[in-house]
Amino acid sequence: MRHTEAVLCVSCFLFLHVAAHVRDASRRQQWPVPYRRFDRRPEVDSYCEALYPFCPTGDRDGRLPYMRDTDVISVYRLQTPVWEFKYGDLLGKFDIMHDAIGFSSSETGTNYTMEWYELFQLGNCTFPHLRPEISAPFWCNQGAACFFEGIDDLHWSQNGTLEKIGEISGDQFNDMARWVQDDNDTGIYYETWTVRSEPSPNATVWFESYDCSQFVHRTYRKLAELGAKLSSRSQTNYTKIYLYSGEPTYLGNDSTIFGQPSMKNLAEDIHKFYHPFRPHQSYVDFAFSLLEAYKKVVLDKSFYLYYNFEYWHLPMKPPYVQIKYEEVPLP
Ligand SMILES: *[C@@H]1O[C@H](CO)[C@@H](O)[C@H](O)[C@H]1NC(C)=O
Ligand SMILES: *[C@@H]1O[C@H](CO)[C@@H](O)[C@H](O)[C@H]1NC(C)=O
Ligand SMILES: *[C@@H]1O[C@H](CO)[C@@H](O)[C@H](O)[C@H]1NC(C)=O
Ligand SMILES: *[C@@H]1O[C@H](CO)[C@@H](O)[C@H](O)[C@H]1NC(C)=O
Ligand SMILES: *[C@@H]1O[C@H](CO)[C@@H](O)[C@H](O)[C@H]1NC(C)=O
Ligand SMILES: *[C@@H]1O[C@H](CO)[C@@H](O)[C@H](O)[C@H]1NC(C)=O
Ligand SMILES: *[C@@H]1O[C@H](CO)[C@@H](O)[C@H](O)[C@H]1NC(C)=O
């Protein structure tokens, strides 16, 4: 009797404890989930191979030049359609744009381009590799800032935008440079998707993307904070790739999901989900994969999102996926 009571009490206590914990966790859940910052950028795994080398003409140590305070530096807004990705021209038609910032020193006449992009191309940041020898899906999803000398006027202006949006002092530039380095060391991975509850403007945002245009917005905000005045004659629109879902559920990380036998079913489900999206497929495989992907996302209304190196389940809802080219005003 005594013994049973004790057991009941323990389980009751455990239950209350767990329930309190769950309630606590849901109360503390912040939307959008904050993008995780790291102390420093880890070494890249040698499995990840870049199709194009990252930042080939940038400084090897990622240093930005020092500007004299007497200098006046012009700031340019740069935007161009993404052509080089696997689907070619298609992405230009969907207004998938790449954004960057240009600088030009009036004292030296030298100009520079600054951008933030994937180390191993967009596909590898959006979907993982399923490697037979490793149980967890394997992500080559680092992104980083690249600063290099020169502005390729033709590249930016011919099909995109090259517009001067302001001027800053050498001091402001140097302050921005310190911030860029810190931002680059602590924000290490690319996130393609923005996840929200519905298309309407006052929808809840569950997750923010972390991509080239977000870097441009952060930099503009930093420049404004340092006192710069930025303005554009035209509407400043950027590409956003949206997923629509109900409230996401936290699932766990690699070790909790793929390192525990009790989570086998979930682990298998995540594998199955990413199978249609694997890189390097033949066209026939790709056609089947599109069908498979459609079934998962639209018919089963399910998506496994990888964010902050953790998995979340998204209960998908119409219109499921959208690519929008929307205005984000200068600060
Ligand atoms: C993606 O990653 C694989 C393996 O790391 C690599 O071979 C490939 O070049 C990368 N890029 C693309 C576009 O698949
Ligand atoms: C950002 O980090 C990448 C990867 O380590 C490096 O190649 C690049 O030079 C850095 N960029 C800047 C501006 O510090
Ligand atoms: C950048 O410098 C190059 C070479 O001097 C020049 O051709 C180009 O017009 C400059 N672009 C801008 C936006 O200042
Ligand atoms: C501009 O777009 C056309 C196709 O519409 C393409 O042939 C050309 O190479 C593009 N120019 C640049 C500089 O990317
Ligand atoms: C925004 O929210 C308000 C109140 O919550 C609602 O009345 C309104 O219809 C919403 N707007 C849109 C465009 O959904
Ligand atoms: C994964 O999650 C567990 C439980 O929350 C935690 O103890 C562990 O440190 C995490 N692993 C990594 C690599 O973040
Ligand atoms: C730019 O964004 C605005 C509002 O977000 C939209 O109405 C407009 O059509 C967009 N412009 C283009 C060229 O897509």
Summary tags:
hydrolase activity, acting on glycosyl bonds, glycoprotein, signal, 331 residues, alpha+beta, single chain, disordered N terminus, 33% helix, palmitoyl-(protein) hydrolase activity, 6-stranded mixed beta sheet, binds 2-acetamido-2-deoxy-beta-D-glucopyranose, CLN5, 5-stranded antiparallel beta sheet
Tell me about this structure.
It is a single chain. The protein has helices at 2-28, 90-93, 121-126, 153-159, 170-186, 212-225, 254-258, 264-274, 283-299; strands at 72-81, 97-105, 111-118, 143-149, 161-169, 193-196, 205-207, 237-245, 249-253, 302-307, 310-327. It starts with a helix and ends with a strand. The model is unreliable at 1-24 and 84-92 (pLDDT under 50). The protein is built from nine helices and eleven strands. Strands 6, 7, 8, 9, 10 and 11 form a six-stranded mixed beta sheet that branches. It has a five-stranded antiparallel beta sheet with strand order 4-3-2-1-5. The protein has one domain (52-60, 71-327). The protein has 331 residues and is of the alpha+beta class. One 2-acetamido-2-deoxy-beta-D-glucopyranose binds next to helix 3.
